[in-house]
Amino acid sequence: MSHDSGDCSDRICPFEFAWVDSPDKIGNHHKYAECAAKGICDRGSGECGCFPGYEGKACARTTCPNSCSGHGNCNYIEDLPFQNVPEDYINNNYDRSFLSQDPKLLTYDKWDLHKTRACICDPEWADIDCSKRMCPYGTDVMDIRNNMLVAAKYQTQQIFFEAGSTTASTLNGQTFALTFKSRLNETFSTWPIYYDTSATGFHDFMNDIEVALEGLPNQVIDDVEVHGSYGATPDSATVNITFVGSATQGPQHLLTVRSYLCGDGCTPKITGLELMPKSQNITEVTLSDFNSFECGRRGKCDYTSGMCSCFAGYTGASCNTITALV
Questions:
Q1: What is the Cα–Cα distance from 304 to 131, expressed in whole angstroms?
Q2: What's this model's pTM, rounded to 2 decimal places?
């Protein structure tokens, strides 16, 4: 290491972008600083003694709380989902369809992209350090809507398919899959679904989507209704998926279309669909009148076991079954 003292006896520690500093006269900030201004240099060894919450050469990166408790990964901010709102979201009247995009496609390019880190928890684990087991979510059965004379609405998500090339052969007969993320952050993908917008096959296409979603493990989707329409060409279709089951009452994560090729050694094995870049985005076209709370807001979560302790008069995994009228 280099030395920087009157008699060249003191070592210099590594420099990195400063976490906090004062801007210069033209406004530049986050200049290079020894130990990133978040540590003290050991002049004997030339190594930084980082302050709590920082680590690495030159104290360049943040630590993750409790090392994510062994139930998650410590990721850089550039790898965290939805850190940078796409310009399309702003330019198109804040269209929520961007939420269905793969988070990895949403780039983050700020000064701390290789510095700031946070936990991404494993399924069924939550909190800033992934130390708490998640409890089931359910609707509050005692919640009163503004107008009880009107039938409650269920969440409906809409998928629009459109071929990515006018010269491509028909999409009919090709396969894709849908991915659902539960309120406990469990991710499940359906078996391959055959795309079919022919006059004789479209009804079966709708049924195939419904059966595939209801066939996901653990009955994470216990009941859905699927309807749709196909366009003037066989390469476009609109599909509406309504979550009507008790397990999926209230707002749910948007589905994701898996339209890329997944061949040998990949699961589910699908041919993929050559779609327009934004055509497979999923939007929420009907908001749910139901809510979705931890333990149905009728119990307390035991964050050690991930089980709800229901209040008197309520039972069920998410405390949304009334056992007695009080």
A1: 9
A2: 0.77
Q: Which helix (H) or strand (E) holds 89?
A: helix 87-91
**Block residue for tokens 């976490």:** 19
Who contacts 203 (Cβ-Cβ below 8 Å, separation ≥6)? none
Domain residue spans in the chain? 15-59, 64-133, 137-146+291-322, 156-286
Look at residue 79 and give its three-state secondary structure: helix
* Total count of residues recorded for the chain: 326
Query: Per-residue pLDDT tens for 19-63?
Result: 998 888 888 888 999 999 999 999 999 999 999 999 999 999 999
Give CA 77 to chain center in angstroms: 14
Sign of the CA dihedral 311, 315, 321, 322?
A: negative
- Other CB atoms within a 10 A radius of the CB of residue 101 amount to 21
Kindly write down the DSSP assignment for every residue of 213-246, as one continuous string.
Answer: HHTSGGGSS--EEEEEEE-SSTTEEEEEEEE-SG
Torsion, CA 140, CA 143, CA 148, CA 152, rounded to 10: -30
Model confidence at 93: pLDDT above 70: no
Least confident of 10-14, 164-168, 200-204: 164-168
